[in-house]
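Quick look at the format.
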Amino acid sequence: MSIELATPRLLLRQLMDRDTWTYTYLLVDPDTQQGVLIDPVREQLERDLALVRELGVELLYVLETHVHADHVTAAGMIRQQTGARIVYSEAAQVKAIDRAVNHGDSIAFGNFTVRVLATPGHTNGCVSYYVDGMVFSGDALLIHGCGRTDFQQGDAATLYRSVTQKLFTLPDATLVYPAHDYKGRTVSSIGEEKRWNPRLGNQRSEAEFVELMSNLNLDLPKKINEAVPANLETGISFDPKRYLHEAFSMADLHTAWQSLPEDELIVDTRSPQEYDSGHVPGAVNIPFGEEDRHVDALKEYKKIYLYCRSGRRAQTVLADLSILGLDNLACVGHSGMPEWQRAGYPVAT
């Protein structure tokens, strides 16, 4: 008798910042332990990093649904400590990010793919993220509500079309995870919101919605003057030379490897166990977290090429070594050893 094992479902952790009623979501592929974090809050940085460490997550991306006005993001600090790449909508025009996305783009981690849905209206740079029967809707669609439309280029008619033409066209069983809830609710569904949402449900017309939103008369968020400027800089004072670099692929590394001079070095930043299982011939192993011990030796090289499995650790090592004064670095920031192996390049063990 054969037993077929079902594909593991995505691991989800829903976290809350009670001061701002903000939800942060950690999504993890249980097969590969690769994950993404959605809408992190600065005050919860240590909590979120501790959870990532405890679960053994290789954090690939920080996904932001929009430029928040009620809290400062932890995205920049998380990138500093994990190498995770920061993702915003291109329309948000946020500085110093790693990837700007548009409607229909996809973001892969492990065996899962996040689909980007442009859902402007609360702000002009709002996006929702759909993956594995769940949609993380930011402030566009809340549980029995929606985001306001009276600041940050908000527009009620635009938000109406974003929700009704994009989110409400998802399957009714799709779980809705919003960026906030002020009544302690944790999750809804598209089917529930289409029927019961008092602002957008029950086939409310666009004209009715626009009139309703124009008469809310809400106070501005308390932290808007701090949060918006900070979030346009990923939550930190940012030096792009340390955290951003030109794209360098494993194919580029292979080209460099074929004629590597003595004053250049390839560094594998994975663990010793990963390195022993297969690495680029001639590469030396400096595991992520140990790079500061080798600064003086690395300064002797004209050029150093860094790689790992997915680019996360290599990118973090690049940032750390840059802070310590090295400027002779190149980094494979979007792939790693599996790509080298798939290409059929030589492997040493």
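Next, a different chain entirely:
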Amino acid sequence: MGLNAISSALLKGIYHSFKGMSVICYLDKEINERKQNRHSPTIRQKHIEREPSPHPHQRKQEDSKVIHKVLQCATLNGGIFLASVFVFECLLLPSLNKFFSVLFGSDAFVTMVVWSWIEYIVLLVYRSFWLVPLFFLSRVINAFWFQDIADSAYRYSRGRPVAFPSISELFADSIFSIFVQFLFLLQASLTSYIPIYPVGYILYVVQMSLLYSLYSFEYKWFNMGWKLHERLAFIENHWPYFVGFGLPLTIFTQLSDSWVVSGCVFSILFPFFILSGNEASPVTDASDIHLQLFTPVIAVANTFFSKIIGNNKHIPSAATNANTMPQQTSRLNRR
């Protein structure tokens, strides 16, 4: 396992990350055709006189709408949210600034003082009553749409999801996963400030790529019944592929310094990465090195929950262990 194998896995991860672009073209059609073929013509003929034909609108609601959900994400995050940011920052503010410059004429000092107050008030109103509420509202709506897209894709390719043993374990795994991801995002942000260039930036990009890969594959792995420690261990042990898979999304979201613009870009592109992750077959033999970047945040998360909640059997342990990998790999291959 050398540099060539690592490079090959990284490039294959990049290639697989774009598969969602092609999957979206045929996924809805095949899902809906599969639904229609579940009922044979003879059965439909037997019940045709007893059961009225479904209303066209009702039939439409039964069809898969993966493309529709993806377009909704693009419309909300790009057509409404992102467009409003550009209109405000590139049109409204410059126009107001020009208006007050013309209004007060050559008195530059008065113009500067008045505009500083006007700009502060306008920005405060804009952020308080539009930007922040729309940001949180879009996050909630996106979460439901992302889940619908992932569930439809998973049922199409793998069938019924594997249920967790209990609701409490499901809830605990979800909460713990969110907390670990938040800590890992914080860790990645802190490493970007390492003063040795380009070590800090490379570490940041690698960690963000792994995090975005976790985001993309977690829907599938969650439906497969994988616990958090299994998901993290799989990414750590096969990191070359997952660095490559998450790298395009990392690059796209780094094109702007604005966290709002980056968030909109992420929400527009992420549905395609969900579909790509659902269809992808990760490379599992590229490196024998276990890149344990999640280990620090796992230790912090375990300590936090043990101190705050205490010893509870429903709190998942997220300690990654390479010894669990043969079982995980075989489960992945069977699916």
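Residues 7-27+66-334 form one domain.

See the schema section for token definitions.
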